[in-house]
Design a protein that fits this description.
Uridine Diphospho-n-acetylenolpyruvylglucosamine Reductase, domain 2; 28% helix; Uridine Diphospho-n-acetylenolpyruvylglucosamine Reductase, domain 1; four-stranded mixed sheet; 19 strands; Uridine Diphospho-n-acetylenolpyruvylglucosamine Reductase, domain 3; single chain; alpha+beta
Length: 321
């Protein structure tokens, strides 16, 4: 991509109200893995108007839409165009209904609903990232996923702002229609939550956070679980026969079970390694690269296929790789 063209584009973007445009920003600063080369242009849009104006201005320049970067493996070479984030943050609570902007930190939403005595999102405490990413990947934990509470999602599809209901979002385990339309940018989600006791919700959340921080310390440079867990009923009979009843949780088989059988724990490749206590956790131990993460993931997938006859699917997303 012509650098002069990108420099001209940066000048144009800097004139858009509500847009913060920064050149040559290291993606390692924007991802929890702390891996990734420079984004030629980082554009943070704090309003819908700024977001739409940015998309209209980008033209044929390479474009990547991201959120909080908590589940992202960014290429070591960086990204040669515009990395765009929608950073609007707002939470409006009216009884059981909650409207939240996509750029809101998920933990802020969790805390606000607990304080308001609204139940359901409290089990997601400690999950990093923004609300838009939670909708994109149908985030969840401890028996709940965000799709259970979604009434509607407003988004920009490249030509117009639209709103769709829960069914049209096509939520499944760690999936949504937004994963299949990566040029759609969610703007706002309306949730409806049942009432609960704030003290009880807070107590449960604190217990969950303690467990989560032991498994994924906040200082650990990782993206949480690397692979999706498996829906038991969707597994081939030959694979289901290998799974003992004790490991099945809420109709799912943890990927960590198969990874452990394949000897994943403690594997090291350069600066990245699999935790010695959790086979589905890869972290950047220092100096890790996206190439090493990808190679280690490929090795783990091959080992599980050879050992169990099963192809695992990543939960992490890739940028520029």
């Amino acid at each position: 991509m012509d650098d002069e063209k990108l420099a001209r584009l940066a000048t144009v973007l800097n004139e858009i109200p509500g847009l913060k445009c920064t050149e040559n920003v290291s993606l390692s600063q924007l991802t929890r893995f702390a891996i990734g080369g420079p984004a030629r242009i980082l554009a943070d849009a704090s309003s819908e108007a700024a977001l739409i104006a940015t998309l209209n201005a980008v033209g044929d320049v390479p474009l990547a839409l991201i959120g909080g970067g908590s589940n992202l493996v960014a290429d070591d070479r960086g990204f040669p165009g515009v990395v765009l984030r929608y950073t609007a943050k707002s939470i409006e609570i009216d009884g059981s209904r909650v409207k939240v902007a996509a750029g809101t930190v998920l933990q802020d939403l969790v805390d606000a609903t607990i304080a308001a005595g609204l139940e359901g999102l409290h089990t997601m405490t400690g999950i990093p990232g923004w609300v838009g990413g939670a909708i994109y990947g149908n985030a969840g934990a401890y028996g709940h996923a965000i799709h259970e509470f979604v009434e509607s999602v407003r988004y920009f599809d490249g030509s117009a702002v639209r709103e769709i209901g829960n069914a049209t979002c096509e939520f499944r385990y760690r999936e949504s229609v937004f994963k299949r339309h990566k040029n759609w940018m969610s703007l706002e989600t309306t949730l409806r939550l049942p009432s609960g006791d704030p003290a009880a919700l807070r107590s449960t959340a604190e217990g969950i956070l303690k467990v989560r921080n032991e498994k994924y310390p906040q200082t650990m440079r990782c993206a949480g679980s690397i692979f999706k867990n498996l829906i038991l009923t969707e597994l081939p009979e030959s694979v289901r026969a290998q799974v003992p009843e004790r490991v099945i949780r809420e109709g799912k088989v943890p990927s960590a079970y198969f990874l452990e059988l394949a000897g994943a724990k403690g594997m090291v490749l350069g600066g990245v390694q699999v935790a010695d206590y959790h086979a589905n956790l890869i972290y950047n131990a220092g100096g890790g690269t996206a190439q090493q993460v990808r190679e280690l993931i490929a090795t783990l997938k091959r080992r599980v296929m050879d050992r169990c006859g099963l192809m695992l699917e990543e939960e992490v997303q890739y940028l520029g790789c």
